[in-house]
């Protein structure tokens, strides 16, 4: 089973927050909360239908990292507590495409630069303002990893917070788009297959990428109890890219044949723009 969190010790105290550039807050932004190595705030944008657009902005000091919703071999994902919010029915979190990085022999998934996590905030009563109150627990890493927490609050008018900040628009464009298995174009996942049995069982994923030598794949189970390994790349044919991972980190009693998995395929970057990415939820095929 893969370890879900590895915390190095002792924790280092360093004046890294001073290296962060923290712009002045505006009406659509909460004050910054600045744990060591990072700074966090809430931002809000336009209303769309009955929901508000918002985001959690995480600034990182140079050389620091933070984790995706599934952290990989080692790490801890962010945990969001919205329970003290007012007039909030639910908050949906989107995740820009992540990258993998090495942490002393373990491979983790996350962000090595500043990131905004887009939010969809659905009020209980669309005619009333929203008080968004977040207790955020997450982790950041430099040469060591350490837990961090932030308490943030932002008032959003009933009609929305006005124009959506550019950083939130940019982050939304980096969120993998939902796609079907065997969809046309690139990036796309052509097939996800379960091969072999017992200790030899593995998952084989065939993908199309704009650059077959670039890009990456991340595979998640249906619940947080799953801890699937990060895939390795194999040589493919006809310009395809093949990713393979052993069957490990499956909860006791669960069956890969009975549940869909979530595949996030990130294409290689071209130019300065964000890497295109897709998210496919599908069951594995079997021989």
Automatic annotation (TrEMBL):
Residues 44-153 form the Thiol:disulfide interchange protein DsbD N-terminal domain. It comes from the Bacteria. It holds the Pfam family DsbD_N. This is Protein-disulfide reductase DsbD domain-containing protein. Residues 1-26 form the signal peptide. InterPro entries: DsbDN. Keywords: Signal.
């Amino acid at each position: 089973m893969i370890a879900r969190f590895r915390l190095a010790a002792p924790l280092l105290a360093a004046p890294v927050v001073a290296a962060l550039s923290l712009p002045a807050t505006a009406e659509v932004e909460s004050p910054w909360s600045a744990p060591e190595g990072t700074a966090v705030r809430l931002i809000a944008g336009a209303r769309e239908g009955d929901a508000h657009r918002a985001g959690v902005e995480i600034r990182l000091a140079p050389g620091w990292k933070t984790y995706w919703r599934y952290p990989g071999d080692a790490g801890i994902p962010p945990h969001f507590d919205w329970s003290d919010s007012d007039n909030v029915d639910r908050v949906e979190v989107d995740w820009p495409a992540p990258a993998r990085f090495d942490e002393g022999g373990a491979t983790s998934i996350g962000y090595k630069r500043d990131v905004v996590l887009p939010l969809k905030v659905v009020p209980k009563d669309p005619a009333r303002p929203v008080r968004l109150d977040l207790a955020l627990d997450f982790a950041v890493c430099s040469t060591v990893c350490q837990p961090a927490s932030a308490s943030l609050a932002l008032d959003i008018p009933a009609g929305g917070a006005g124009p959506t900040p550019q950083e939130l628009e940019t982050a939304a464009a980096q969120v993998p788009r939902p796609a079907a298995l065997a969809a046309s174009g690139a990036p796309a996942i052509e097939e996800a297959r379960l091969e072999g049995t017992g200790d030899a069982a593995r998952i084989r994923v065939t993908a199309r990428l704009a650059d077959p030598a670039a890009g990456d794949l991340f595979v998640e189970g249906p619940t947080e109890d799953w801890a699937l390994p990060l895939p390795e790349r194999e040589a493919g044919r006809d310009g395809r890219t093949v990713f393979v991972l052993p069957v490990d980190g499956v909860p006791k009693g669960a069956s890969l044949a009975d549940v869909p998995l979530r595949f996030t395929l990130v294409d290689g970057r071209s130019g300065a723009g964000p890497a295109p990415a897709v998210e496919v939820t599908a069951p594995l095929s079997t021989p």
